[in-house]
Amino acid sequence: MQKNEQISALILAGGRGSRMGHVDKGLQPFRGLTMVEHVLQRLSPQVAAVAINANQNTGIYQRFGVPVLPDVTPDFAGPLAGMEAGLQHCATPFMLSAPCDSPFLPLDLAARLYAALQEQGADVAIAVTGEGSRRQPHPVFCLLKTSLAPVLTRYLAEGGRRMDGWYGELKVVEVLFEDGDAFRNINTRDELQSLDAGRPARLHDVVSCLSSYDPDALPVRDAQKIIGQFVTPIAAIEKVALRAALDRVLAADIVSPINVPAHDNSAMDGYALRGADLKADVPTTLAVIDTVFAGRTSAAVPQAGQCVRIMTGGVMPPGCDSVIPQEHVAAMSDTSITIDPGVIRTGDNRRFAGEDLKAGSAALAKGRRIRPADLGLLASLGFAEVPVQRRLRVAFFSTGDELRSIGEPLDAGCVYDSNRYTLYGMLTRLGCDIIDMGIVRDDPAALEQALRTACENADAIVTSGGVSVGAADYTREIMARLGDVTFWKIGMRPGRPLAFGRIESRGHSAYLFGLPGNPVAVMVSFYFFARNALLAMMGAIADLPLLKVRSAGAIRKKPGRTEYQRGILSVGADGQQQVAITGSQGSGILRSMSEANCMVVLHDEQGNVAAGDMVDVMLFEGLI
Ligand code: AMP
Ligand code: MG
């Protein structure tokens, strides 16, 4: 991030904290720091200087090592009075304001507001989030020309107090920031507490809940459990157009605003009639008094002995409760029909209003990944936009001096980096926003830099290589130094080593999945550890079912560990499904992964499998 030397920042902490029970908001503790320190940490790298506007506890604010400026206009005149004080003190041509209760503010706030202001020749740039009806301006996140001080002072002197009122005459540019969460401010103590409560415990606390824990012989199930308990979903929601919601994670329960269908209607082309008119033993003749087309209503009100010709989807005329399909009518003319006894019963071929969905009933549950049928369902309810979770940002890179990128010559002893391509495919299929960071050399400084950059830009980091025993030791050392990371040897094949945890850099944190380097191991570890965790972070509910299928042949298996074998599911000679494992199961042999269409999952307690035994299978379709 580049510092902009033209800008000074002002943190607005001058309020009375009335919504926080009159405590000083900026000084509230949050994740080990005060709120104002979080803001300070995020603003300092962006600008030439920072000051704090505060009207109480100024002695405490001074300890943060930046100037503390009380209001000049008396009587707690609101954030504008703080900005006025800031402008009077500001030594640079521009001033950026931000409230003290925004510990997640964007790290490119200054840069983006400045760029837009310059580009548009504006006086003021403010941040906005959300689009359409959710568009929300944030006038406290504001970049302005320092020369505007007299305009603001005049506005305040005339009694103006509205944050978005003072720049009425000026040229204002609004800058859209995608991540609404970054502007989240914390107004009440409850919010503060709930945010802190949402923060996962340290790995140590999660791990200590297990009855026995040995990081060097960790069962697959325990590793999955620890990871599942440690990750938390990201909170940001966005509204997208219906079609763009395909494959996204639904962020709110959808309740039907209407009855679907809206009216009782016909399920067939035929005649709508009153069931009571049907005679049990002899043919019934009814007079046809009108015709109703699909989506139409009829003003006709059939009386006893009358019916209405109706098309599929036509609204049932009053009093009619049944439809006889036209092909079941014994005789018909333009004016009458005859129905043989017993051909239909009362109520046949009538669709009820709300039989698909009743107004007020649950249509789709939050956490669902939206499928084509869901798009149709949402369309049938009239939704043009859908609330979805923000996409998860996942950074990934490969480690190893022996790796070459495609396009480079393959030096002796080197291999092409294939993991970044399998990871690209798997992450893309999961619907993540991906940041491909390339190959990182086996070099401590390069690795630390890569991890920090990844952490500052992504919600999760997936690396491959370097976590096995014998791999360069500093990989573990650096990962551990950057945060709360643990290294496991998992009771599984392929893929024993795994690093997992959360690292931090400059106020950002990201979950880390350090996968092994072998091309098959990286995929298996991704599918059975990272996949569900990433989906949980996306707010999705997505457990994959295991199918039980007959094994075509015998499989050698050691009890006490989970083995994932590449399998081919097919239909056997007897018409039943069966699974056969692919030839070579070496953990570097990607070809067999490519040939396979499923994984055979042989659990810890299982031993050798005989031909004909049932085994658990996870299909790749749906998984990838
Ligand atoms: P490591 O876990 O770093 O010891 O790597 C284990 C094995 O996987 C070594 O043979 C590596 O060459 C291979 N490997 C590691 N990363 C990759 C990659 N990105 N693409 C292909 N092979 C890899
Ligand atoms: Mg390596």
What's this entry about, in short?
By secondary structure, the chain is an alpha/beta fold. It contains 14 helices and 35 strands. The structure holds adenosine monophosphate and magnesium ion.
Provide keyphrases for this structure.
624 residues, alpha/beta, seven-stranded mixed β-sheet, six-stranded mixed β-sheet, 14 helices, binds adenosine monophosphate, binds magnesium ion
Describe the structure.
The protein has 624 residues and is α/β, with parallel strands linked by helices. The protein is 22% helix and 29% strand. It has 14 helices and 35 strands. The strands form eight sheets. Strands 5-4-1-6-8-7-9 form a seven-stranded mixed β-sheet, sandwiched between helices. β2 and β3 form a beta hairpin. α3 (79-89) packs antiparallel against α5 (149-157), α10 (419-430) packs parallel to α13 (519-537) and α11 runs parallel beside α12 (474-481). The radius of gyration is 33 Å and the shape is flat. The two termini are 35 Å apart. The mean pLDDT is 92. Magnesium ion binds next to loops.
